[in-house]
User: Fold this.
Amino acid sequence: MVPDISRGSKTYGLLAYLYGPGKHDEHFDPHIVASWDGFAPDPGRDPSANLKQLEQVLDLRVNQLGSRRPKKHVWHCPVSADPGDRILTDEEWAEVARRVVAAAGIAEPGDPDGCRWIAVRHDPRHIHIMATTVRGDLRGARLNGDAQRAQDECRRIEKDFGLKQLNPGDKTAAKRPTSAEAHKAERLGRPEPVRLQLRDKVRQAVAGAVSEAEFFARLTSAGLLVNRKVGPSGAAFGYSVADPDDRNAAGEPVYYGGSSLAPDLSLPRIRKRLTAGPLGDGDGDAELGDQAAGKKRVPGSRAAQARRGAAAAVDDATRAIDESDDEAASAQLAGAIEIIDVIAVRAPADTRAQLLAAARAFERASRSHIRAERADNRALRYAARQMLSNGYTTNRGEDGGVTAMLLSALVLLAIAAARWHSSRGHAQQAAAANAAALQLRTAYATVAARPMAAMAGQGKALPPAVRERQTAVIREQLAGVDEDTREEESWDALAATLAEAEAAGHDPAALLEEARSWRELGTADSVTAVMVWRVRRLADLPASPASRTTPPRLGPGVRADRPGSAPKAPRRRPGRY
Assistant:
């Protein structure tokens, strides 16, 4: 059950909407289910009542103030049931309304001077509570914190009524679009309120940025109108953004402040990210450092190599979430959203919708009351910058392979984030992380299909002796994996990967042992698929081999019927795993 509080100045205008047909004739049988005294005139059920009479009784105390009447005296709170809930009766909705106005401070039980209010039902699954905020003693209602109190009461109502229980909030969520914003978007034919689109664009402008000037330049490049708030010294102390096509009745752009879009998008919070230190100089960023120095150890475009480096940074972040203190884990979550934002922006059309949805969900999971004031997430932010700087990728060939590699790592990070939040009672963040993992899995399935099929074909075509040798390694190193997974495509792909690594001079058993030690396997959909990407990165193998089905060329001293005499162990990079 979701309350959505807003304030306005036109009593009659809101009444006309509540009793009208709706934007698309969706309002049915509008009528009052409860009111402040039980005797409010109801134009929906009483033929002798009209909207003007109802307006007059609601505004009685407001009008008594004369010139002192508040400008925004209308309090509006739609309360919606979950689509899966049973249909409530009018009597039940009346009880919901009385409890919400009492919790919000509109009219507490036994208070003769409470505000005047009504609850109108014009849809089976929601009501609209409307009140005027001047009390009988002509003082204004005390409404500070009314939204949180209403939310808390709705959680209790859900339990008492046997309805779906939503997750409690902790006041760190971004502000939801208001009813007016939603109606405006619907009226103008927009797919969603402007607030959501602006939040996405500002978040994407922050991802991988190294300076305030670059951040503002990106906002302008994204087509937004930017209004910097500048103090006497000439330094900006805030900002707001607007969509050029979003105008008010006077034809002026509608600006949204950064902090009103999300708590971590205020200029002071963004500055903390930008001034945390130079990007790319973390001790655990050896692979990214090699790329920055122009060392290309594996085939692929610069964009593909940037994604390979990002996958390494994401795996490090997942380990930190599991093993580090709360502040360090929180920092990794704040950095991970930048990776997801960038991959969503750079995604080809066939996965863009899922990745944008994942970014929006994980945005909620990246924010809690645990602040990362001193913790370091520069490796993730640098990885995001490298991805932005090195252009777009496709979902084919080596590009597709490294994208699958990165998405596989992001799925496990999102699952680790959900577990971390859940263990600390962050219900909304845990649910958001799980939602992000679901979207990332969907995108991964699309991207990984082609490279996995190519590697599986190679695995099936291995010489019997080579195949059996790699199968024995897999069985030994992944003893807890169900034997049935040997029938999966990823099992064949892993056998091909180990054979390819052996041909390059690596020890397959040592590679697989190290890949397994990176943890976070119990929640993987396919352990063998995860191992494919980890082993290929450890051994510096291409992420997407050619789709030929001939066996890989064996290196010197390695015969098909026996292991090589001196295969080299996997090279551990400083600070990695």
In short: The two ends are 44 Å apart (CA to CA). The first strand starts at residue 2 and ends at 3.
